[in-house]
Amino acid sequence: MLTIDLAKSPEDRAAVFTIRGAVFVAEQRVPIAEEPDSRDADADHLLARIDGVPAGTGRLVAEGELGVLGRLAVLPEARGTGAGAALVRAIEERARELGLAEIELHAQTHALGFYERLGYTARGEEYLDAGIPHRDMRKPLH
User: Fold this and answer.
1) What gap in Å lies between CA 29 and CA 116, rounded to an integer?
2) Nearest to 21 by CA among 36, 9, 42
3) So where are the chain's domains?
4) Is there a contact between 18 and 4 (Cβ–Cβ < 8 Å)?
5) What CATH number has the domain spanning 2-140?
6) pLDDT band with cut points at 50, 70 and 90 for residue 142
7) What's this model's pTM, rounded to 2 decimal places?
8) What is the C-alpha separation between 117 and 131, in angstroms, rounded?
9) Close Cβ partners of 105 (under 8 Å, ≥ 6 residues apart)
10) Average pLDDT, stretch 103-130?
């Protein structure tokens, strides 16, 4: 069973950063100094569990009426279960609860199709972030 909750407890927060370390640092080779950032302190972090076991995470940062979805990561063994799409929908729902009008994200280009299927539209040119090609994407929440 898949559940998604706000990561509030120290144990939940530790699971969030363990997942991000496994996916971004170990798997994608993002420099460890670049993975956590100053936005983490003010972000809402969501934690997906499959049968009670942490499986994925994502965060939401509010900037006025804009929500920034970021650090979406699903462990390899949980990919293909729907956890990633469920995390995006949960982050969108949290953004609506906060009264935000639109979501922006910075997608790795290999994931553009995933986000397009969830209603996001790519904007602007491709750029490198931590050595990985990205494009900005947006979705209105109305």
Assistant:
1) 25
2) 36
3) 2-140
4) no
5) 3.40.630.30
6) confident
7) 0.94
8) 25
9) 68, 69, 70, 72, 115, 120, 136, 137, 138
10) 96
81's tokens: 């279960």
Question: Distance between terminal CA atoms of the chain?
Answer: 29
Give the separation between CA 138 and CA 142, rounded to whole angstroms: 13
β partners of residue 44? 60
Residue found by looking up tokens 């995390």 in the block: 87
Mean pLDDT of 37-55: 96
Sheet holding 2-6, edge to edge: 2-6, 44-50, 53-63, 66-74, 102-108, 132-140, 121-129
**DSSP structure string for 22-71:** IIIIIIT---GGGSS-GGGGTSEEEEEEETTEEEEEEEEEEETTEEEEEE
Q: Give 118's DSSP letter.
A: T
* Residues 123/108, Cβ–Cβ less than 8 Å: no
